[in-house]
Amino acid sequence: MPRHHSRTPTFPLYHSTRKKPRRWPLVLRFIKGAIHMDIAVPVVLHALWSALIAYIDRVRDEHIGLPGSIIPSLSIVVGLMLVFRNQTSYDRFWQGNQHMTTIETSIRNLTRSFLTCSHVNGQHPSVEERADTEQTVRILLALIYAAKNHLRAEWNTTPFVLLPNTAEQERRRRESTSIHKPEYEDLLPSQMRGFEDHGLGLLLQLSLRVEAYIKRGHDRGWFHPPQASQLTVQLNQLVSSYGSMETIHLTPLPVAYLIHMRQVLALFGGVLPFALVEEMGWWTILMTSLVMFTLYGIDAIGAQLEDPFGYDKADIKVDAIVEDLRVETGVLLSEWRRGSEMFSK
Q1: Which helix (H) or strand (E) holds 70?
Q2: Where are the transmembrane segments (predicted)?
């Protein structure tokens, strides 16, 4: 009987940590998750250059090779630059993952506190107060969607177009700033207007509503002052991590460094055949291709990790993290509505 490969369920965190048995060893993978297509052009160009050098060396009476001693000097420089490149890129990837986890943890903590403490001992909250709590928890979940879309420049509102008629311009502005994101539109208050076209991020706008809820909870006697202060600290950490992720997204490596590194790589690949051709002949083509495949591959991996919030295979699994958090929050809300014992008063 044929053997079926199935994913191993990992509840909770089903979306972000499912594991599937590998059909092929990683060493044989050349398409899915690999960077071969990104570096194919420069590697092929260096192979053609090596072929030209090997041909010229073969048809000439004298070798055109250079002393092999020049390669170690160049390779040290190339190695140092690539190490710096990948260390910096992986640090951005790791920090981005850490900040995403901080946002997720802050939302979990705030959700737990809002659902458990939104009442006064001996008194049941009114229908309006329960609706207020549920809406705020939904807004908390919308925060991580807003962060994800902001980092990917997938705006929630459509910028309005300036029109000569002031009244018409204002009408179009009101219409164009309505938030329309089907994946989490149901989490937002009805008829909520966004101000992204004015320069205000949706996450910061939503955080104001969460802050207002904390104040209302304090005024109602739900949260005592130290607890309200701690809830505000959690919200501040969430916004701070959002700002740090924004910094990672908006601060690429200096272009001067990237230009110089690519030029050094090209120079190394151009000189390498001259150092190999006298001893290796036509094998110079293969050896140069393998070396440049390795070096350009390391550079391409660094480029993928530099901005880790996109859709590349190597990027942070932002969509999976968000969906797992939505499942968690949905279960908590469902149990809270039916008065589960986990929220025992």
Answers
A1: helix 70-117
A2: 26-52, 64-84, 255-276
